[in-house]
Amino acid sequence: MNHVYKITRSCKYFTRCSSNITNALADSTIFSLSSGYGKCGVSVIRVSGPRTSHALQTLVVTKEIIDKGLVLWFPAPASFTGEDSCEFQVHGSLAVVAAMLDALGKVPGLRPATAGEFTKRAFYGGKIDLTEVEGLADLIHAETEAQRKQAMLQSTGALSRVYDNWRKRLIRCAAHLEAYIDFAEEENIEDDVVLQLTKELRLIITEITVHLNDQRQGEMLRNGVRTAIVGAPNVGKSSFLNMICQREIAIVTPIAGTTRDIIESTHNFGGYPVVFADTAGLRKHTKDVVELEGISRAKECLQNSDLILLLTDARELLQNISTNEQSAQNYQSTYLQQLDLDANKLVGKRIQLIANKIDLLSSAELQKLTQIDNVLTITSKQPSADVAQPFLAHFEKLLCELCGQPTAEHPRITHARYRQQLERCIEHIQIFLNEYAPDIFPDTAISAQKLRNALKCIERITGHVSSDDILDVVFKDFCIGK
Q1: How far apart are CA 401 and CA 406, in angstroms?
Q2: Most buried among 207, 209, 262, 273, using CB within 10 Å?
Q3: Distance CA 12, CA 306 (A)
Q4: Within 213-324, where are the H helices?
Q5: CA 362 → CA 286, 313, 325, distances in Å?
Q6: For residue 121, which of 3, 10, 37 has the smallest C-alpha distance?
C-alpha cells in the first residue's frame, strides 16, 4: 500500500517538473558499470529506459559471444528507477566490461549515464523522495557501522515519513483555512474550524521543535565528530593523538611548542567517526610569530569543534585543585577563560578533561586523582592495556552520548539544509498565528499565504518543490553507475 501511495503522490509532483527534464528522461535510455572499477569476480552493468528491452534482445542474440553471465530483467514500474531496467552480471575483467560497454554504446537510442542519473530518474519517477536520495548517498559513503545504520534508515524512508506527515497536516490546515475564506458565509462551515487548525499548527510547531532539539547528533554522526585536542605546551597532545590513533601521526619532541599547525586525522571508534585535530599548545605569552599563528588557529579549531579534549599534566592538575580547593569543572573553566576565548562559541560544547602522564604519579597521588569526578586518566607514553582500555571504553561511551543511536522511531536531522528549512517553517507558522486574529478582521487571504510558505519549506526538504540548485548539490557526489 505504501508503494502505491508513493507513486500516486509523485505523479502530482512529476507534472510540475520542467518539460526539458521529463522529456529527456522519457526519450533516453542509459547504461553504466554499477559495480566498482578494476578486476573482480563479477561486474554489474545497469541499463534503464524505454529501449532497455531492445538493448537486451540485441546483446543476447549477437553472433559473437562476449561472455557468459546472468541477466536480470526489471519491468516498469517495479524497478529502482521506475522504468524498464536490466542488469548484466558478467565476469569482472577489464576486457569483458569494456566489450559490454562498447556493445551497448552501439545500440541505437542508448547513451552512457551521467553521475547519479539512475538515482535521479528514481527521484523524478517518484520511487524515492529527496531525503531518501540523500540517505542513499550517505549509505554509499558510510565508513562506520553507526553511519551505515543512520544512512540505511534514511534511505528507506524514516525521515521521509516524519516530514511527509507534517506536509499532509499543513496541506489540510491550509485547505481548511481557504475553505473557510471562500465558503464560510455561503456554506455550512463549522465556526470552530480556525480554532481547530490553530491548535493543530501549535502541535506541529511543538513536534518540529522537539525534532530540531537533537544536539546535532545526526549531523555529527554523518560528518564525523570534530574533536579538538587542546592544552598547554608540552602537555602531551601529540603523543596522545599518536596513542589513540595507534600510529605516528604527529611529531613528538621534548621541546615545548613543536606543533604549530592543525594536524587532522579521521578514525573509527566503536562505529562512530571521529575527526581528531592536534593543535598548538595554548599559552598567553609568547613572542614567536609562528607560534602565535598556531595558537590563533588552535583557538579557532577549538571554537568550531563538537568535542574538546582538554589535556592537562596530572601533577599540575592535582596541585592546582589541592592549592585552590577547586573542582575539576572550576579548573577547566578557569583555564579556558585565561585564554581570551569567545565564551559564547563554547556554549553547549562537550568538554572532557583528561589528566595525562599518570605514569609519573605516586600510588597515593594516583589514588587521589581517581577520586576526582569528570576526569579521565591516561599516559600517552607507552600506555599499558590496564590504562588504555578503560580510557578507550570511556571515550567510546562519550561518542555514543554525543551521536546517539539511530532509530526508525526517532530519525535524526542529517543535513544542515533540513534544519534551515524546518526553522523557516516554524517562523512562517508562528507569523500566521501571531497575525491571524478574527476579532480584529485581518486579511485572511494574506495570512493563508504564511501557511503555504510553511508548506513549501517542508516540500523543499523532500523535493516536492523543484530546485535545481538543491538537486545539483545532492547528486554531485554520486558515482556514475548509481
Answers
A1: 12
A2: 273
A3: 41
A4: 217-223, 237-245, 289-303, 314-324
A5: 33, 14, 21
A6: 10
pLDDT tens for the chain, 482 residues long, are: 333 222 222 333 333 343 444 555 557 999 999 987 778 889 999 999 999 999 999 998 877 899 999 999 999 999 999 999 999 999 999 999 999 999 999 999 999 999 889 999 999 999 999 999 999 999 999 999 999 999 999 999 999 999 999 999 998 888 888 777 666 555 555 567 778 888 999 999 999 999 999 999 999 999 999 999 888 888 888 888 888 877 776 666 666 555 667 788 888 988 999 999 888 777 777 777 777 778 788 888 888 899 999 998 888 888 887 766 677 888 888 777 777 777 777 777 888 999 888 888 888 888 888 888 888 888 877 666 666 788 888 889 999 999 988 899 999 999 999 999 999 999 999 988 887 655 544 566 677 788 889 999 999 999 887 556 556 656 666 666 67
Q: How many helices (H) and strands (E) does the chain have?
A: 19, 11
Instruction: Yes or no: say if 214 and 413 are a contact pair by the CB < 8 Å rule.
Output: yes
With the C-alpha atoms ordered 363, 364, 365, 367, is the resulting torsion angle positive or negative? positive
Name the residue with cell 542529517.
Answer: 414
d(CA 135, CA 463): 13
Residue 275: in which H helix or E strand, if any? strand 272-278
Residues 6+ apart with CB under 8 A from 119: 128, 133, 136, 137, 475, 478, 482
State the pTM of this model.
Answer: 0.80
**In angstroms, rounded to a whole number, what is the distance separating the alpha carbons of residues 225 and 259?**
22
Neighbours of 362 (CB within 10 A): 9
Query: Contact 414/222 with Cβ under 8 angstroms?
Result: yes
**Grid cell 517542508 — which residue?**
458
Q: Which three cell numbers stand for residue 87?
A: 542488469
User: What backbone phi and psi angles, to 5 degrees, belong to 22?
Assistant: -65, -40
* Lateral strand order in the sheet of 40-48: 70-74, 85-92, 40-48, 29-33, 110-112
| Alpha-carbon gap, residue 125 to 121, rounded angstroms | 6
Nearest to 125 by CA among 2, 21, 45, 20: 21
Give φ, ψ of 316 to 5 degrees.
-65, -40
Q: Are strands 350-356 and 307-313 parallel, antiparallel or unpaired?
A: parallel
Instruction: Kindly list the structural domains of the chain, giving each domain's residue range(s) and its CATH number in brackets, ordered by start.
Output: 2-128 (3.30.1360.120), 153-214+413-462 (1.20.120.430), 226-403 (3.40.50.300)
Place of cell 562537550: 350
The label of the residue with cell 538543491 reads 470
48 residue type, one letter: S
